[in-house]
Amino acid sequence: MANSRFEYVRQFETHDKLLSDCYIVIRIDGKKFHEFSKYYEFRKPNDERALKLMNASAKNVVLKYKNDIILAFGESDEYSFILKRDSTLFNRRKDKLATLIGSLFTTNYVFLWDKFFPDTPLNVKHLPYFDSRCVLYPNLSIVKDYLSWRYVDTHINNLYNTVFWQLIQVCGMTPQEAEKKLCGTLSSDKQEILFKDCGINYNNEPEMFKKGSLITRKGEILHIDVIKKIDELFEGF
Ligand code: ATP
Ligand code: ATP
Ligand code: MG
Ligand code: MG
């Protein structure tokens, strides 16, 4: 073990251990994916290849740490990994958890890119990278609300984006016109605009777009009504 007079600088490092007996959620989110998705010409509003790439990357993270992870949930450019309350992964060190899960996700995303985008090589000037944070939740009831929050967010964003892009792509509106038309509308109004103006029944949209993706500890990827199944999903935890 090297020992030098410089060793004392280690004392400046802070301890970052997360409180015991709390659920840890690690959420990663793509950096500037609005631009990234434009550069690689993702289909709007939902590029299925990109979502499947997110899912495959997250699945590898779940399988690697399946003893610590309860489940993972993803939509758009984000994924949440929910850890068990008594997990001792990386000694519960916040920096280690956030950075290692974030970089493991990113390396998987890059490694798997060609499989989902075989005709679109990654450009070194436009590489994907993800931020990552840890949040502690003190009980299961709040963890369930956390997951429900991300699920509802998926629905709200997807409904908005679906109508928004239909108004542009099918009805020929400019983004400004589409935004104005949707301003102040309720969920039911949006579904009606989609049906009457664009001939689309929102219920028939792909489940992955409407419901996001949930990955179980076994590595199954599901697109389910999270709120309906919320108690079942956390049974035993
Ligand atoms: P930040 O760096 O702050 O996260 P961001 O540009 O990544 O900025 P987000 O709020 O994370 O902003 O939104 C991600 C954006 O990435 C979406 O708004 C959408 O434009 C794009 N995006 C992500 N996934 C897909 C997908 N599967 N298909 C099409 N577009 C996508
Ligand atoms: P931790 O996950 O705690 O960081 P670690 O195994 O990465 O554990 P480090 O203290 O970071 O431990 O040390 C990195 C180790 O990786 C070195 O001890 C050495 O064995 C190996 N290593 C790193 N870079 C090289 C290299 N260029 N050539 C040969 N071995 C290397
Ligand atoms: Mg982002
Ligand atoms: Mg995002």
Topology:
Blueprint: E1 23-30, H1 33-39, H2 48-64, E2 69-75, E3 78-83, H3 94-116, E4 130-137, H4 140-169, H5 175-182, H6 187-198, H7 207-211, E5 213-216, E6 221-222, H8 230-233
Antiparallel strand pairs: 1-3, 1-4, 2-3, 2-5, 5-6
This protein binds adenosine-5'-triphosphate (2 copies) and magnesium ion (MG) (2 copies).
Keywords:
237 residues, alpha+beta, six-stranded antiparallel sheet, 8 helices, 45% helix, 15% strand, binds adenosine-5'-triphosphate, binds magnesium ion
Based on DSSP secondary structure assignment, what is the total number of beta strands? Answer: 6
Helix count from the secondary structure assignment: 8
**Helical content band:** 40-55%
By secondary-structure content and strand pairing, the structural class works out as alpha+beta
How does this model look, in words?
The chain is α+β, with helices and mostly antiparallel strands and 237 residues long. It is built from eight helices and six strands; from the N terminus they run E-H-H-E-E-H-E-H-H-H-H-E-E-H. The protein has helices at residues 33-39, 48-64, 94-116, 140-169, 175-182, 187-198, 207-211, 230-233, and strands spanning 23-30, 69-75, 78-83, 130-137, 213-216, 221-222. The chain has a six-stranded antiparallel beta sheet with strand order 4-1-3-2-5-6, sandwiched between helices. The longest helix is centred in the middle third of the chain and has 30 residues, at 140-169. The protein is globular and about 70 Å long. The model has no long low-confidence stretch (mean pLDDT 97). This is tRNA(His) guanylyltransferase.
